[in-house]
Design brief:
There is one protein chain. This protein is mostly helical. It has one domain. It has 3 helices and no strands. It has helices at residues 3-14, 24-31, 37-74. The longest helix has 38 residues, at 37-74.
Length: 75
């Protein structure tokens, strides 16, 4: 990978916009509550749970990349 690709990848990872991760039904129930603390907690929990599949796929991709690079140097 060249430097521009790496820089673009890092920029995309570090520049995240806030997102609302609640489904419509959860949002309707939690918006009726005063203060909105439970809604913020559930939204953060959903976002944290979404991180793990991306980490797993990234780890698998890295292992495949590393094994292909190792195969190139041995050949």
């Amino acid at each position: 990978m060249n430097r521009v690709s790496i820089l673009l990848l890092l920029l995309c990872i570090l520049w995240a916009l806030p997102a609302e991760a609640q489904c419509a039904m959860c949002r309707a129930v939690l918006e009726s509550e005063e203060g909105g603390q439970a809604a913020k907690g559930i939204n953060n929990g959903i976002v944290y749970l979404m991180i793990f599949p991306y980490l797993l796929i990234g780890g698998i991709g890295y292992v495949i990349y590393r094994s292909r690079q190792k195969a190139k140097t041995e050949a």
